[in-house]
Design a protein that fits this description.
The protein is an all-alpha fold and 74 residues long. The chain has one domain: F1FO ATP Synthase, CATH 1.20.20. It has three helices and no strands. Helix 1 packs antiparallel against helix 3 and helix 2 runs antiparallel to helix 3. The radius of gyration is 19 Å and the shape is elongated.
Length: 74
Amino acid sequence: MLPIMEISGSLNMVGYGLATIGPGIGVAMVFAAVINGTARQPEARGALLSTAWIGFAVVEALAIIGIALAFAIQ
């Protein structure tokens, strides 16, 4: 008879790993919009980039909150 393998750890980390897909797609969408906007109006590059960095920070804050909760809810 084969020995039963014991799996230890937290399922929270698997959930967080799947939840990182959302911020990844969000960051991609933010910078894709900046590239598209810059291609259409190059003179608006500065305004678009400043707004993009704010959007990037908000999206990444959600990812950081997610990993904090994944460790806290163990």
